[in-house]
Specification:
alpha/beta; Rossmann fold; six-stranded parallel beta sheet; 5 helices; 6 strands; globular
Length: 167
């Protein structure tokens, strides 16, 4: 078994809906154990006990202040390198296609890379013409079926890589 934590902050529901779809992708991988946690219900210490983490944030021209503060509290894990080699990925929801969704994803990925995680993105597909980003799963305004499919793909990819690395 390998464990995947989906950690998310959600204000208007978009990010939570994406988190559910990412979780569906994780659940579809044999041997993957899923934990779906709201930011308010999780501690940075929990990151030590998982093989992968997929982080989601609403787009507030970047990540939320709450998510930044949460990661600021993970400095001890950064110093010890306890998260190095684990798998990480990102997803984000917002209200405008040009409002900074990719900046939000990149901020999350920056935090994961700083901790030494191996980052998973999404490869090009025809679906990406209307949904998602190389950097992670996204939704704009509402969560469409294309958004859910991208999110499921991201969850599956992370869970599969975490399983291979755990072997």
């Amino acid at each position: 078994m390998h464990s995947v934590l989906i950690l998310f902050d959600s204000r208007g529901g978009l990010t939570e809906q994406l988190a559910q779809a990412v979780g569906e992708g994780v659940r579809g991988v044999v041997g993957a154990e899923l934990s779906l946690r709201r930011l308010d219900d999780a501690t940075p210490e929990e990151l030590k006990g998982v093989d992968a983490v997929i982080v989601g944030s609403p787009n507030w021209s970047g990540i939320t202040g709450k998510l930044k503060t949460w990661f600021d509290q993970s400095g001890d894990l950064w110093e010890t390198g306890d998260l190095a080699g684990k798998v990480g990925a990102a997803f984000a929801g917002g209200w405008s296609p040009s409002g900074g969704l990719e900046a939000t994803l990149l901020q999350i990925l920056h935090l994961l890379l700083a901790h030494g995680l191996v980052v998973v993105g999404l490869p090009w597909s025809e679906r990406m013409r209307v949904s998602g980003s190389y950097y992670g799963a996204t939704a704009v305004g509402q969560v469409t079926e294309d958004d859910r499919a991208q999110a499921r793909d991201l969850g599956r990819r992370v869970a599969e890589l975490a399983g291979r690395l755990a072997e």
